[in-house]
Design goal:
This protein is of the alpha+beta class and 283 residues long. It folds into two domains: 127 residues, N-terminal domain of MutM-like DNA repair proteins; 125 residues, Helicase, Ruva Protein, domain 3. It is 25% helix and 23% strand. Strands 2-3-4-8-9 form a five-stranded antiparallel β-sheet, with helices on one face. Strands 1-6-7-5 form a four-stranded antiparallel β-sheet, covered by helices on one side. It has a two-stranded antiparallel sheet with strand order 10-11. It starts with a helix and ends in a 15-residue tail after the last strand. Bound molecules: zinc ion. Zinc ion binds next to loops.
Length: 283
Amino acid sequence: MPELPEVETVRLGLEQNILGKKISKVEVFHPRATNPKSIAPLDSLTGSKIISVNRRGKFLWLELNRSEVLLAHLGMSGQFKVSERNAKIEKHMRVRISLNTKAFEVRFIDQRTFGWLSVDQSSAGIPNSVEHIALDIFDPKFNRKEVKANFLQRKTEIKRALLNQEIMSGVGNIYADESLWLAKIHPERACSELTDFELELLLNSVAEVMGAALKVGGTSFDEQYKNVNGESGYFDIELCAYGQDGEPCSRCGSEIRRIAFANRSSHFCPKCQVNRRPKKRKV
Ligand SMILES: [Zn+2]
């Protein structure tokens, strides 16, 4: 599933290609490709000029020269592809956005159809449907102190809180497992029991893990698309925990374990990530 680094890579790729272009036609080929909350049909945006390509967490949107935006979520397997207009049509193309250029068009391809586009109203530059989404760790306005305090208040496990897009956005299952492994925190630790030091370490780990993925992904937009298979992440990053069950932990050699988590799984090292609060040192 695309997480922040993948979505940011898509954003950069779109930005490099479509800024200043005008939308000349929007064709929808699957009913689920338009979000039911869309305030108007996608083709109502015909004629508008693309001012900027924005992202918050895993949401992407095109700011236009009108108050509506074109909002998108990639879901499980959605991709935006900048294609030559005469390029072969992909089997799972759900939406085609034609622009005022003969050179290329934008295609939304989505095998599993959990992704969608919508027309949304925006205020102060943020689409209404995205207002409840928290800032991500790379946002200049991201407030570590507030986010840590928010984590501490939650009566839930840290993995669940990490995935909560209203505390901090952009982290999905893969980068949650990787960040918790790097910070040596068990996914089922209670949020309220984490120390400030551990939370600090966790936020550093989130930034490090997603930053590394961004570096790999941000360089070659087209190349990345060839790597997309809808199941794994987009990038050839070295995973230390996610999907590594049965493999030795690259830090201590213990076998990485997998446990059930919310219809999915958590992967962790039972030796590096112990499910209890670290003992206070005796003074
Ligand atoms: Zn280990």
